[in-house]
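User: My notes are a mess, but here's the protein and coenzyme A's SMILES. Can you give me a structure?
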Amino acid sequence: MYSNKNFIVNKTRQKPVVYVRLAKFKEAKLLYNIYNASIKAGYSNTKKLILYDKHVEWLKKKLISNSKIYIGKNSNKKDFGYVRFDEIKNNVFEVSIGNLPNFYSKGLGSIMLKKSIDKFRKIYKPRKLICVIKKFNIRSYKCFYKNGFIKIKFDKKQHYTLNKLNSKSEYYLEQKFLDNLN
Ligand SMILES: CC(C)(COP(=O)(O)OP(=O)(O)OC[C@H]1O[C@@H](n2cnc3c(N)ncnc32)[C@H](O)[C@@H]1OP(=O)(O)O)[C@@H](O)C(=O)NCCC(=O)NCCS
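Assistant: No problem, the inputs look usable. Here's the predicted complex:
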């Protein structure tokens, strides 16, 4: 921290505190609200808002599959986001992330991603973590980049995703480095 004549400048921005845990069925509404907010804002491949009944059906199946969902909670004990690991093939997982809109751009997403990946890697030992991000989604790109994900060339033979790829409008990333976050 330093000061000049007019104001005090705090150079050491404190990292927010984030706790992560595996999602349970009771978090269905929270996840539903995050997904639909992300669809509305155009960050998702899905264009139509999800109906709650369909979401519940989907979540029930997800929770008993190899895919895992982590919930992020802030220092005020408020659940604000999720990180999902979807198994695509042979222990290769596609990672996705979302916050409730009130919690965008507060430094929470990057930390939630790091903590979820640390837990997930420790327990489930994935072979590879990949993600697909819309090129205009700079905030999400930065979040993954900070966590050691770098752009790779799209190669159908080596990499897989749950969605149809559109290499013109999406970046294809893979986690190559661990513990990048500073
Ligand atoms: C993507 C998302 C999870 C990121 O979480 P977040 O808490 O908002 O992000 P953070 O505050 O941790 O910021 C991540 C980085 O983006 C930067 N950033 C924040 N807001 C930004 C903005 N409006 N424009 C550009 N960069 C921005 C931050 O400075 C930070 O970079 P830095 O660490 O180099 O400073 C969240 O914004 C979100 O839910 N977005 C909508 C859904 C979505 O896009 N999901 C991802 C689909 S792949």
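The helical segments are 28-40, 52-63, 108-124, 138-146.
User: Great, I'll file this with my notes.
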